[in-house]
């Protein structure tokens, strides 16, 4: 047993003699640098994915705030009653009258369609968005691209050829 130990130590010493400490330190440094670079890439990919998700959420939030403002401006009274009025994503094949009826806010005040442009206006005559009010009784334009629920998240971020998104403006009786 002692002989095996001596032989093992001898092998280790002969291996160590054939490899300089500087070479071993270089190999370790290169290995650690590669590991650090891979970790940094993984972290950067994670940050990119999180930022894309935040941009999508901000896009949808901005669209919903714009829809609420459009509903407020589309109603004769500006929205009435002691309760908050609501905005629903418009299903492309149904009327807002029917959609509102399915909620606690059963009265439809408007069926709006809005679209905004990217970027900051450079002048007071730049068009920054478009809108329609289809009325509550019919499905109106049934283009599936106007239906937020059926849209992809990328739709709100595309920046070109953006579809209108449609909303129902509902209130309690």
Distance between the amino and carboxyl termini: 95 Å
* Alpha carbon gyration radius: 31 Å
Strand count, sense and barrel status of the largest sheet are: 4 strands, antiparallel
Protein structure class: alpha+beta
Summarize the helix and strand pattern as letters: HHEHEEE
% residues in beta strands: 15-25%
Which runs of at least 5 residues are low in confidence (pLDDT < 50)?
none
Q: What proportion of the residues is helical, as a percent range?
A: 40-55%
Counting copies of identical and different chains, the oligomeric state is single chain
Say how many strands there are: 4
Number of helices: 3
Question: Mean of the pLDDT scores?
Answer: 82
Shape: elongated
Strand order of the largest sheet: 1-4-2-3
């Amino acid at each position: 047993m002692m002989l095996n130990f001596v032989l093992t130590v001898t092998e280790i010493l002969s291996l160590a003699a054939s490899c300089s400490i500087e070479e071993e330190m270089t190999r370790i440094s290169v290995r650690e640098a590669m590991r650090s670079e891979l970790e940094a890439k993984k972290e950067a990919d994670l940050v990119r994915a999180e930022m894309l998700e935040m941009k999508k959420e901000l896009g949808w939030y901005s669209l919903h705030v714009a829809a609420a403002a459009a509903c407020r401006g589309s109603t004769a009274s500006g929205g009435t009653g002691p309760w908050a009025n609501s905005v629903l994503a418009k299903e492309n094949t149904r009327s807002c009258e029917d959609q509102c009826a399915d909620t606690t806010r059963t009265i439809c005040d408007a069926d709006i369609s809005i679209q905004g442009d990217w970027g900051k206006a450079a002048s007071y005559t730049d068009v920054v968005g478009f809108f329609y009010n289809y009325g509550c009784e019919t499905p109106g334009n049934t283009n599936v691209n106007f239906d937020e629920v059926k849209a992809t998240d990328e739709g709100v971020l595309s920046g070109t050829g953006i579809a209108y998104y449609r909303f129902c403006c509902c209130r309690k009786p």
